[in-house]
Amino acid sequence: MFWDDDAPYDELAGLRDVVDVSFRIDCSCLPLDHAHALSTALLESLPWLETEELAGVHLIHGAESGNGWMRPQDPERDLLHLSRRARLRLRVPDARVDSAAALVGSRLDVAGFAVGIGEMNVIPLEPLPVVFARYVVSEPDQDEAAFLAEMAAELSRLGVPVSKLLSGRRHVLRVPEGMLHTRSLMVAELEPEESLRLQRSGIGPERAMGCGLFIGHKDIAPVPGGN
Asked: What is the per-residue burial (b if ≥16 Cβ within 10 Å, else e) of 158-181?
């Protein structure tokens, strides 16, 4: 037996059972609003993404701006042009990492666009004091104050004390049933345990379409809200 009483104890270990897996992709462009199409394509290969409580799909994002390039604005007509640095990321429990790796070498049909899936890397969640979700499901006619009050109540239910919340851009994602209304949300001044708890659990429905998934952010400066 080996026993080291001085070995460091990771008090956050119980919250580190969820990770992001990142795949290289071979794809030059996608529809700007590809949430439903990407989710549908992934569920054909990994059906558990819809039923696994802690799983989710990050939508694919391109550059925000630079060198005179303007981010497309029309989700019905515009395309999202992707660089070689673009990645497909899934949020999965540790127990599903090997299953997610089955995507490597496959090709997804996302609304008629081919997405080749390359090598996979595992990315641990970072317990940063600021976290950000691009899309959190909201009511169509809900004003900002009501949305933030709802989010504060949900965070309290998760055991995450509310200090600073910031609501950002509204987005509408098209689904067969109609429109899914969302807002971006930043949560700041979190302790490491609170940060991991929120990233691990997420908030609200439609995780397989990129909603309710938080990522660590380096500071509270303005963050991008779109694709």
From this structure: eebebeebbbbebbebbeeeeebb
154: helix, coil or strand? helix
Amino acid present at 169 = R
Query: Nearest-CA neighbor of 47 among 89, 94, 96, 95?
Result: 96
Question: What's the chain's length in residues?
Answer: 227
Q: How many CB atoms lie within 10 A of CB 226?
A: 19
What pLDDT does residue 202 have?
A: 96
With beta carbons less than 8 A apart as the criterion, state whether 210 and 225 touch.
Answer: no
pLDDT score of 145:
95
Joined together, the tokens standing for residue 23 give: 């795949």
Backbone angles phi, psi at 39, to 5 degrees: -60, -45
What is the distance between the alpha carbons of residues 203 and 207, in angstroms, rounded to a whole number?
9
Q: How far is it, in rounded angstroms, from Cα 220 to Cα 217?
A: 8
Provide, for the chain, the percentages of residues in helix, strand and coil under a 3-state DSSP scheme, each rounded to the nearest 5. 25, 35, 40
pLDDT digits (tens, 9 = 90+) for 124-178: 999 999 999 999 999 999 999 999 999 999 999 999 998 899 998 899 999 999 9
Q: SS3 for 207?
A: helix
State how far the Cα of 160 lies from the Cα of 137, in Å rounded to an integer.
19
pLDDT recorded at residue 75 = 53
3-state secondary structure of 217: strand
- Residue stretches of the chain with pLDDT short of 50: 1-9, 65-72, 223, 225-227
Distance CA 68, CA 38 (A): 29
